[in-house]
Amino acid sequence: MSSVPSAPNSPPPEPSGAHGRHRVEPVLETENLVKVYGRGESRFDALKGITFQIEQGESLAIIGKSGSGKSTLMHLLALLDQPTAGVVAMHGRPVSQLKIKDVSGLRNATFGFVFQQFFLNPHQTVLENVTLPLKIAGVGRSERNQRGMEVLEQLEMADKAKNKATDLSGGQKQRVCIARALVNRPEVIFADEPTGNLDTATSEVVEDILFGLHRDHGITLVVVTHDDDLAAKCQRRLHMQDGLIVSEDRGVLSGTGGQS
Ligand SMILES: Nc1ncnc2c1ncn2[C@@H]1O[C@H](COP(=O)(O)OP(=O)(O)OP(=O)(O)O)[C@@H](O)[C@H]1O
């Protein structure tokens, strides 16, 4: 875990943290973001006008009851889906100005994803799963494998590189997902219930890895979670209700993961 590369395109994190004395540049921001699913009688307004910023290098939890719109918001921020109205901007540039091909390239180069359900390909080895983002980016096989092995070593999973991805424990699978999220040296990691399928002890290991990457390498961490303990370790919490951000609070509330 000592040599995880920091994001190549981003400046080092501010020493005072994302909410310290200095104003930190937003990596992502939204303006009046609206998402409507369906139409007519089945119309559902999942996001009703969300305006906020994610600062470079911060750790942010998006919390709220089931159905409040957390995952919808994360999918729009991560450029996995398009809003019905409103703006998502990255480094100040509205994403809607980009071509679809460029959006997927940007997503692959800038973001890493860690999901509760792992989404590992059962027919591929651990190393093949980890290096998929590099394959998508057109990186050649030998560099792919070298970088894949580097991140697996950092996550103490190198000895499992040739295993099928299914032949692992839950915690090991999530470490493979984190390795896959890291292999492109992302600026932002989006984690949707990253510990939802894990027991308490394994959850702590995974949280330590995620917050270590955030703290030591300046990676911006955006976590969607129902887990109050995990949310408390983030520097900022956005509370969602019925498609709106109804409040936010700042400061690490417990644990050793983030910076207060
Ligand atoms: N593809 C879809 N079509 C129709 N409605 C959808 C779709 N995706 C989500 N919704 C609805 O939008 C609302 C917000 O869903 P979302 O998944 O963002 O909530 P959430 O806060 O992440 O919930 P959970 O904590 O249960 O994952 C829910 O009422 C959901 O049923």
UniProtKB/TrEMBL annotation:
Keyword Chloroplast (UniProt): no
Gene Ontology annotations for the cellular component aspect, listed alphabetically: membrane protein complex; plasma membrane
Annotated region (Disordered), positions in chain: 1-25
InterPro entries cross-referenced by the UniProt entry: AAA+_ATPase, ABC_transporter-like_ATP-bd, ABC_transporter-like_CS, ABC_transpr_LolD-like, MacB-like_ATP-bd, P-loop_NTPase
Keywords (A to Z) from UniProt: ATP-binding, Nucleotide-binding, Transport
Domain ABC transporter positions: 28-260
Stretch forming the signal peptide: none
Gene Ontology MF terms: ATP binding; ATP hydrolysis activity; transmembrane transporter activity
Protein name: Putative ABC transport system ATP-binding protein
